[in-house]
Amino acid sequence: MQSKLPYVLVMAHRKGGTGKSTIACNILAEFSKKVKTTLIDADSQQHTFKFNSKRKNPAPVANIKNVKELVKFLQQDDGLTIIDLGGYDSEFARAVLAYSDMVITPLSDSEFELDGLVDFTSVLNNVITKSKREDIKPFILTNSVHFNDKSTQKAFKTYAKNNMYEVFDTVIANRKIYKNILFKGKSVSEIEPFGKAAKEIDSLIDEIIEKA
Fold it and tell me: Kindly report the CA angle at 94 between 173 and 98, in degrees rounded to 5?
């Protein structure tokens, strides 16, 4: 990842409740131990900001309110920026996507999430066309599925072949531990370092670095 810096990693989906903030919290905690990492929480619920504020060594936070501030920050940044983008469409949201290097869209087998993906794909296509950013890397992350579920990720890979996405090999299972990180301010890797959830997040981190 060091050789790729500065780098902008965005968690995005048109629907709320897909696990964007949960994933953002975990990768923020782990990446901040490896490289200079700044958080921009553009989700109105501010879950990632709250998680970060509870940490013993919180990552720096950039309080960005508009496109002008975003551009100014990114022009000066020399590290990794993780942006938790809210489930909405706006000029600012599209600017975030236009300045991203990698976009991660967590997705389960919910029909509501799949329907939201269709809308989000249209938005992202429009952003890439207008910004001429053909180097943006959009990824689907199979998230919050049963640990024995193999068919959902397979279906996502089929979808990705006909669209702009790649699909991470890592699958994030629906585990109770992911629901307990917010108020602890600790990643699953910090709560249970040798647990199955920690292995999932470590695998995701490795893939992000490899595919950056």
Answer: 90
For 134-178, the pLDDT digits (tens) are 999 999 999 999 999 989 999 899 888 878 999 999 999 999 999
Find how far residue 167's CA is from the centre of its chain: 13
By the 10 Å C-beta count (0-12 exposed, 13-18 middle, 19+ buried), 197 is classed as: buried
Domain boundaries, the chain: 2-111+125-211
The CATH fold assigned to 2-111+125-211 is Rossmann fold (3.40.50)
Could you tell me the two tokens for 137?
């890397």
Helix axes 91-98, 67-76, angle to 10 degrees: 20
Residue type, 95: A
Q: What is the dihedral of CA 127, 132, 133, 135, to 10 degrees?
A: 130
pLDDT at 53: 97
Whether pTM exceeds 0.90: yes
In the sheet where 166-173 sits, what is the strand order? 37-42, 80-85, 7-11, 102-107, 137-145, 166-173
